[in-house]
Specification:
124 residues; mainly beta; seven-stranded mixed β-sheet; four-stranded antiparallel β-sheet; 11 strands; globular
């Protein structure tokens, strides 16, 4: 399984970005998908996750109410809509997949496959 994250960029505080993660493999629709981020000098942290059919989503407290995770199984893609961005959202964002389809999982070690990351920079 290969994951390709995209959609990062430079945005002003209060703005929005939509990240995408395209996955290879015919069993994508069985995977739990997650988004994580890592800021300079900080540990990687969980942001949001979604179960195989989108019926269950779970968020970190910092993301709840501002970010929305969704998926399109027909396109093997998971999205992260980020609104009301703050300076502290600046990080490299990674998508990850758990082929076992477990939910909710928020620890990075529980995800098997990882994308390469996309940079999100929020400016004042």
């Amino acid at each position: 399984v290969q994951l390709q994250a995209s959609g990062g960029g430079l945005v002003q505080a209060g703005g929005s970005l939509r990240l995408s993660c395209a996955a290879s493999g015919r069993t994508f629709n069985r995977y739990t998908m997650g988004w994580f981020r890592q800021a300079p000098g900080k540990e990687r942290e969980f942001v949001a996750g979604i179960n195989w059919n989108g019926g269950s989503t779970f968020y970190a407290a910092s993301a709840k109410g501002r970010f929305t995770i969704s998926r399109d199984n027909a396109k093997n893609t998971v999205f992260l809509q980020m609104n009301s961005l703050r300076l502290e959202d600046t990080a490299v964002y990674y998508c990850a997949a758990d082929p076992a389809g477990r939910v909710p999982i928020i620890r990075g070690v529980e995800y098997t496959y990882w994308g390469q990351g996309t940079q999100v920079t929020v400016s004042s």
